[in-house]
From TrEMBL:
It is an enzyme of class 6 (ligase). InterPro entries: Mur-like_cat_sf, Mur_ligase_C, Mur_ligase_C_dom_sf, Mur_ligase_cen, MurD. One of its GO terms (biological process) is cell wall organization. Residues 307-419 form the Mur ligase C-terminal domain. Its EC number is 6.3.2.9. It comes from the Bacteria. Keywords: ATP-binding, Cell cycle, Cell division, Cell shape, Cell wall biogenesis/degradation, Cytoplasm, Ligase, Nucleotide-binding, Peptidoglycan synthesis. One of its GO terms (molecular function) is ATP binding. It is found in: Cytoplasm. This is UDP-N-acetylmuramoylalanine--D-glutamate ligase. Pathway: Cell wall biogenesis; peptidoglycan biosynthesis. Residues 107-284 form the Mur ligase central domain. It comes from Prevotella communis.
Length: 443
């Protein structure tokens, strides 16, 4: 009997273990941290052996294959040992892909993945398609393949998942953009991160589709290196050479495969970045043969996703917007770009090696004040104080919201779009967004 070891027992690890068990493997799950009770229960229910708080070498390095959770870096000692021993390491998505023939719609990019994935899912569900949501959101692909199979899977793929994918193949691949992110996991080599993202098109055939943002300089450069087999569907904000999706005279337009258009004003998501996301999702729906009136209706009634440019409340004429998910500089750029009023911007947190230069012109143009929110705000002072705006230094969400309340004038917007990860002061970006919303609602 072949032995599969699963490293990391979160959503993807637990799902992978259950599928492996179902497929008749000898399965062992090992997690260096505590395993959440819900996943312990799932493993116990399936009689899967697990350990937590340690990695027992003798029970791991006898694996025929290892399924590694995306959160575990390649530099983790046990992963290095497995590589040295020549044990194959794959991701949960790669593993699940072996046991299904369903159609895979895969979405990646540095920003916009969750929004676009949720929007594609919304369109497919509205059309009555049997679709499952997987990857970074929803239940793991492996668990659905094992216990709740669907005809289509709409999968959000991070670069960490793509890293350990080899044979998997996307029927429809969407590549939204590539900008610097997670460089700490890629040896601070941008090209390593870019190569991971480009894996979204590996193994595609002429029967497949590849949707991508035509204006991205990195994608453009990379495409020259690949012999792309899939039918290409490039999109851009405005009509330009090669693009088959764009905005023209206020009309959201898709030329292929089926010509489609609607008024831009009818799109429920606002902001320039969401034009891209709406184009990518609409093209995917069009390729899947979904009727025009369904696509039109879905693009105009999509409620949006929490923590992404989410309107919280208007207090004394000041609008509060939660964009806690903006954990890199590019995401904040698009958030600021979409603002129609002056902004009090909340920035800061755990810096992943940010270069703040790209947002300085927009901050100068749009912001009336800056509120720094982090355990250590020195880099923010060094970067932004020279712009000459009022700044406040805060170290908790309570202090931060109080500072914003004092600084913002009626008609302005307080925008939490912090360019940084949240782990210095918060559990995660959701916790940061929840605390912000709670405090704003109590103002
Ligand atoms: P991801 O899942 O890739 O992190 P999200 O949809 O959660 O993407 O959005 C993350 C952040 O990026 C949000 O702050 C959002 O405002 C911004 N954003 C969304 N779509 C795009 C895009 N196409 N280009 C740039 N920024 C975007």
């Amino acid at each position: 009997m072949k032995r599969i070891v699963v490293l990391g027992a979160g959503e993807s690890g637990a799902g992978a273990a259950i599928l492996a068990k179902k497929e008749g493997f000898d399965v062992f799950v090992s997690d260096m941290s505590k395993i959440a009770p819900r996943y312990k229960q799932m493993l116990d229910d399936h009689q899967i052996v697990w350990e937590e708080g340690q990695h027992t070498e003798s029970l791991i390095l006898n694996a025929d294959e290892i399924i590694k959770s995306p959160g575990i870096p390649e530099t983790a000692p046990m992963v290095k040992k497995a590589v040295e021993k020549g044990i194959g390491i794959i991701s949960e998505i790669e593993f699940a892909g072996r046991y299904t023939n369903s159609k895979m719609i895969c979405i990646t990019g540095s920003n916009g993945k969750t929004t676009t994935t949720s929007l594609v899912y919304h369109i497919f569900k509205k059309a009555g398609y049997d679709a499952g949501l997987a990857g970074n959101i929803g239940n793991s692909l492996a668990l659905q393949v094992a216990e709740d199979p669907h005809e289509y899977y709409i999968i959000e793929l991070s670069s960490f998942q793509l890293d350990n994918m080899y044979e998997f193949h996307a029927n429809i691949a969407i590549l939204l953009n590539i900008t610097p992110d997670h460089l700490d996991r890629y040896n601070f080599e941008m090209q390593n991160y870019v190569d991971a993202k480009m894996r979204i098109i590996q193994n595609q055939t002429p029967d497949d589709a590849f949707i991508y943002w035509n204006d991205d300089p990195i994608i453009q450069r990379e495409l020259r290196k690949y012999d792309i087999q899939a039918i290409q569907y490039p999109f851009s904000e405005l009509k330009e050479k090669g693009s088959i999706g764009y905005i023209s005279e206020g009309e959201y337009t898709i030329e292929q495969p089926e010509p489609f258009n609607m008024e831009q004003e009818q799109l429920s998501l606002t902001g320039r970045h969401n034009i891209y996301n709406s184009l990518a999702a609409g093209i995917a729906g069009d390729i899947a043969g979904i009727k025009k009136d369904i696509i039109r209706q879905s693009l105009s009634d999509f409620p949006g996703v929490e923590h992404r440019l989410e309107k919280v409340a208007t207090v004394r004429g000041v609008h509060y917007v939660n964009d806690s998910k903006a954990t890199n500089v590019d995401a904040c750029w698009y958030a600021l770009d979409s603002m129609k009023t002056k902004v009090v911007l909340i920035v800061g947190g755990k810096d992943k090696g940010n270069d703040y230069d790209p947002i300085k012109p927009l901050i100068r143009e749009k912001c009336s004040a800056l509120v720094y929110l982090g355990a250590d705000n020195k880099k923010l002072h060094d970067n932004f104080d020279a712009l000459g705006l009022p700044v406040r230094d805060t170290h908790s969400m309570k202090e931060c919201v109080e500072a914003c309340y004092e600084l913002a004038s009626p008609g302005e917007t307080v925008l939490l779009s912090p360019c940084c990860a949240s782990f210095d002061l918060f559990k995660n970006m959701e916790d940061r967004g929840e605390q912000f919303k709670e405090l704003v609602r109590n103002l």
